[in-house]
Amino acid sequence: MSPGFIFATGIENSAPTIAGGRIRMDEMEKCGHYRDWDTDFDLVQELGIHFLRYGPPLHTSLLGPRRYDWSFADETFFALRTRDLVPIVDLCHFGVPDWIGNFQNPDFPALFADYARSFAERFPWVQLYTPVNEMFVCAMFSAMYGWWNEQLSSDRAFVKALTHLVKANVLAMRAILQVRPDALFIQSESSEYFHAENPRAIRPAELANARRFLSLDLNYGRRVDSEMYEYLMDNGMSRDEYHFFMHNNLKHHCIMGNDYYMTNEHLVHEDGSMQASGEIFGYSVITNQYHARYGLPVMHTETNLVQGQKGDEAVCWLRKQWANVLRVRNDGVPIVGFTWYSLTDQVDWDSALRENNGNVNALGLYDLERNIRPVGVAYAKLIHDWRQVLPTQSVCLQVPVVMPSEADQEWARRQRAQAYLTRHSTTAAPSNAE
């Protein structure tokens, strides 16, 4: 069985389009992973990490309806299994293939579910998935802020993108469970909070704080608040679409991943405009809000900070985030893991991938020359110091993860068989048709 607490990192695989779809912001390409993937996996092991947020590039793997190119995935996932590294498979990270267009396309959910099923059939030893990464952020940046993909800016476009993103995630979970009945889904979703600048800004802040829950409400089959129901209906969601989410509750297969960055809290002005507020509440306070709403085990699935001029900014942020994880644990919330994202520096996130400038952002455990940064040294020490303590002295779940090297053992086969029986002893899952 796996270690009791999940210490993870990730390979940044964002791939939205900008400039009207003409430019693909492929972070795996920009960060040199296609060239250095074997070295990157070595670095993960050097840090003492067993779990890696990772996925094949959707835009080059999904060639057409039920047409796939698994050549890169075959190489990399064979290497992960050989190393006994556990992938948390990220199947869609902010972008779709050119032939699909963008997240306004209603065909995307079914196409993506077929892709997820095919991946699970090809790599049956994989158990942990994040089918669609940060659904709320993707819908906001693509269809509300006008930055990526469809580059639209309206409530109606946002609701359509969110509907398709969450439906794709739900259908993918269902498809994967048909292949791997003991699959676990770690939703990586941004944990947000909106602060009112003054009393006249209370109303727009309240609306923003209600809207932040929409992706997870729909994903977990939780009835949305009455005001958000009207918002969805007024902006194009049909009752049939809403009922689809209410009738496809798979939350008992899920761990709620809460991402937190310095930019996750916002100052709301009275006209509804916003700006970054910096850290006010922090990860533990906001995560407790999300846990109170959904009652699921949680994982800190993303954080980072740029290594600045002093050289210790990222290390201090790591210590602060870890202190927040321990506070969440001490509050009695079952927390199962922590992630510094990502393994290496990233490129052009200083403009939120809106501009193709080639700016290197010092956010990684290693730089792009694959030299370890101070935060990488600090994270390796943190893992070494805490790994043996947490399983026995923390309020956390023992997640039933099957390591790649154990996938064919008898107990692992029994676990899958029991999960299959449990799943099929409940109400039969509905078909893909709404």
Automatic annotation (TrEMBL):
<dbReference type="InterPro" id="IPR051923">
    <property type="entry name" value="Glycosyl_Hydrolase_39"/>
</dbReference>
<dbReference type="GO" id="GO:0004553">
    <property type="term" value="F:hydrolase activity, hydrolyzing O-glycosyl compounds"/>
</dbReference>
<dbReference type="GO" id="GO:0005975">
    <property type="term" value="P:carbohydrate metabolic process"/>
</dbReference>
<dbReference type="Pfam" id="PF00232">
    <property type="entry name" value="Glyco_hydro_1"/>
</dbReference>
<keyword id="KW-0378">Hydrolase</keyword>
<dbReference type="InterPro" id="IPR017853">
    <property type="entry name" value="GH"/>
</dbReference>
<dbReference type="InterPro" id="IPR001360">
    <property type="entry name" value="Glyco_hydro_1"/>
</dbReference>
<protein>
    <submittedName>
        <fullName>Glycosyl hydrolase family protein</fullName>
    </submittedName>
</protein>
